[in-house]
Write a structure and sequence with these properties.
This protein has 452 residues and is mostly helical. The chain is 79% helix and 0% strand. It has 17 helices and no strands. Helix 5 packs parallel to helix 7, helix 13 runs parallel beside helix 15 and helix 14 packs antiparallel against helix 17. It is globular. The N and C termini lie far apart (53 Å). The relative contact order is 0.14.
Length: 452
Amino acid sequence: MSVPRERVLSGLMLGLASGAILVPLNSTMLAVALPDVMGEFHLGASEVSTLVSLYLGSVAIVIPIAGTLSDRFGARPTFLAGVLAFGAASLVAAVTSSFAVLELARVLQASAGALVSTSSTVLLREVAPASRRGEAFGVFDLLVSTSAAAGPFIGGVIVAAFGWRAMFLLAAPIAAVAAASVGLMLRGEAAPGGRISGGRHLDVVGLALLAGAIGAFLVGIQGGQAATTERLAWFGAMAALLVAFVAWELRQDDPAIDPRLFARRPFAAASLGVFGMTVVLHGCFVAVPLLVELVLREPATASGTVLLGIAGVSAIVAPFGGRISDRRGRRIVAVVGSAISALGLVALAVPGAASSAVVVGLLLGVVGLGMGLSGSPRMTAALESVEVDRVGMGSGTYYTSRYMGGAVGASVMGALLGGTVTAGGVSIGFGFLALAALGVAIVSVGLPGRHR
């Protein structure tokens, strides 16, 4: 007996929302715990920033793989496997006494989260009726964006009250709710997302080459004591693997990522733009908690509240940026928004400007305003430049650029701050992020203007 569609949709929304918020929540929430983790394991900023960069880099590696697995084996089993693995990895992170195991748990979290992210959108599209599909995705996007924005604040409250390990414990019951809701609602005839006969070919070689290239890049940009020659060796390996990846993908009928997409100016500009803006976002997620808690001597709740300035304002403004770009074109909104973010970061980079948590929060609000205005036009331009039957690949490629930017931003900021966090080091870090935002404004000129 099939489950009524309305009941399926309600239960599915609960399960998918519970699963989908795990990824952004555990990405942004950890930021406020970095100072406490540094203290417990006696690490510097460059080492502890790997908890952010490894997470984002792992998502970037697994996203293309996850999409293919969802196509071949079904979205429902892929989602269930993802949320259960995420909960298990979170429990390991909560109880470990080894920083290396904590890093491994973050990699496992990210890999599981990539499975959840791709399969959740497939399930929602299949279950939501066409007449309510926009509404369903709107609610879904709102929940995901809100969880990302609220992550630092929630994390600050949890860390101040129970310690940083409690943040990871929070993920286990959320994952259980997601698995139970989706598992119960989508059974038998009501279960969409089954294996697709003749689905996408699993491009094992291409995916392995891409994973190797991203992995070599992440190792090369990490902080710590690695010698320059060792870093250069990793970057050389990355370059060789990328060349092999591009050569292989150009010969495939169904590539994991089609390099030809980057020959299209709007798609290339959008991908470079989202890369640069997530460098800024996750660079701030590393720098701001360390600034507020270690330099300004404010509690974790203060750093969580301050980060609402960038994430919260961006989430609120995002719909308006998209609406304006529908009328004025993608280019002008993205350029202006990126320039606004650059101005806010320049102000934060001025020595002595970040004198209090209130000032930092206000200036981060300016950065978030620019991000919110430019984000939707950028993504829309990327997907509009791809044929309808290749939107899935275009979306996966775009999100790979996004997560790679986050990994770079966290790693570079950790390296700039070094072992001891000082006001001067934070100013240099914000100066680097300002240059990144300015670069995004320049490349955004390549986005399409207003249609005549």
